[in-house]
Amino acid sequence: MVCVTLLGVVTNVATGALPDGWTPHLWLAWPALAVVVVAVMVVEIRRARESAPVTGVAAAHARRVLLDRVRRYWITSVLDRSLHQEARIQLGVTASADDRRYPWTLRATHRDGFTGVLDQGASVAGLFERLDRAVVILGAPGSGKTTTLLELARELVDAAGRDPDAPIPVVLNLSSWATRRLPLEQWLAAELTERYGIPSRQATAWIEAGAVLPLLDGLDEVVAARRDECAAAIAVFHARQPLTPIAVCCRESEYRELRAGLPVYGTVTIQPLTRPQIERYLDRSGPALAGLRAALAADEGLWEFTGSPLLLAIMGLAYADGPGPTDGPGGRRTRLFARYVETMLRHRPHPAYRPEQAVQYLTVLGHQLRKRQQTIFVLDLVAPTWSPFWAGRSADLLSRALAGVAVGGVVTLLGAALIGWPGLVVGLAAATLTLLALVRDEYDDLELIASRERRPEDRRPLRVNWVTDTADELRDVAGNVGVGWAAVAAALLVGLAFGLTDGLRGWPGLLADFAHWFGMLLATLLALAFTRAMLFDLYLIGPPGGAPRREIPSPALRQRLRFAATGAPLLGVVTGTLGGLPVGLARTGADGLRYGAVVGAFAASYLLVAVALGPLTEQWLVRRRLARDGVVPRPLRPFLDYAVQCLFLRDVGDGYIFVHRELLEFFADRLTKSDAQMLSRP
């Protein structure tokens, strides 16, 4: 109401008849009109977003989108391309009429005393229903927990596609929960937004209504110090929404170590493969697994690994050409993974990547994921610390220097065109302020954003408020001695330049100097505060999910480019008005407009380089240097896709994961102790 009232008043002033004494200042009404119009637009857009109801059509569309993404991310990309399935395809194993999809046995127990085994004709979803739709899936490493969870997801997605009232199954990995430790309903809403691209308001409404069926993988992958806390958060969520179905996966040993188990109705335990099951599986596979049978006959000790379906599939691929040497570095498990990697690289060569290079790249990737306790690799994780040969912050400093030069150049050119040679001084001041601000205020670490390493004190809702945040940051900038005095000095330099232009002609010249100084100071402080507020909000929001896996700009930087492109025009208008207003009052309206345009261009260009263009330059320099050091290839994405073809990685959503954590550990363990220390430096 206030904005609309001001809009009418300012419009009347701008277009109406005024006393003659007001005529020199009439130009002020037009910048004020622009500011009020922008304010009205911002208020209306925010109000529309907050109050717009979720219509049935929009909710139904969002439901279809989410079901489609769950199917593509997890069923098509992960389950249908699981190592077990890919091994059968690679080896040419054909299923017989009585052959189940997977060879392991599921044993179910309900807290009412029911105990059962999944037989040939039963489905995982049927077992889920029998256990009242709240279960925990347990098993040993590589036993098939995730595969069983995804089999359940497949059947539930099909059911939700047929029944619009059925809850939407969503597969999420709990490893990211420990980074923010939010209540589970808030974490679920954030993950739906970040990983699946669902609007936060829609995600929150679904969760509150119990319309989302969480399928939570990797409780054992939560850092040990936070695992009990995570289990407690799941228990609190289930207590608040007891009718919401839920399934959780965890290694059996880690689950037994929890102080309190999950309050679910049933437990599904994946039984280790027995020798009769393995022999029956080998016999049914015919000549496809002749090499594995020969290897087991040559080395009886290999039978100890066959109880794991994961290792059984790896053994089938590793020994497709028959038994290999029975001795070598490391234990049998290490030799098994080494044979698997060597076999896959030999059978699927790539002209751009030699086998030893591919192993080196995967070793670095495995080490970095383990160091950050991550399972999903996204392109934003690449950082200069990946190279053991690269010391210092050369790319960081160079990108900041280029950013300062770019801002100074833009402002100098515009200033020279609009206000003559004093524009050169304004450009110099803009470059100096940009350099000083970027040196003292970090771009915000993209690696930190991607790895989701948040401090508990940073927790807050994901809804941003740039007005409040800018006010908070303005106080911080004003209290920052280094940046504050630099802004004052730059503003005085600009005022002096215009004073020299006036020839220091007494009081009017001093008044003009003060106007230029004061306008530059106001605009600079607001630009710094607004930019820092935007960076802080981007830090809390985190990277987007479901984005295309482009190399540069990476997903987080594309998000920053959108934010900066949205905020720069508004910041330019506001700071230009603040900077030109004192000059227009002290001199003429035309002088104020020209000076305001230059100052607004400085603020807008500073926001662009600080939020997006500077980090984009740094990212390009980092990738280039890492490729030169032989740490990772450039571009990186084609290699990751090649690793997917070799059955080392799987692509899921906007990232990549190893086909199993044991393979990640195998590659991470290949680093020498000295290399690991160098790569682990801060």
UniProtKB/TrEMBL annotation:
The chain crosses the membrane at residues 421-439, 477-498, 518-540, 561-583, 595-616. This is NACHT domain-containing protein. Pfam families: NACHT (PF05729). Keywords: Membrane, Transmembrane, Transmembrane helix. InterPro entries: NACHT_NTPase, P-loop_NTPase. Residues 133-284 form the NACHT domain. Gene3D superfamilies: P-loop containing nucleotide triphosphate hydrolases.
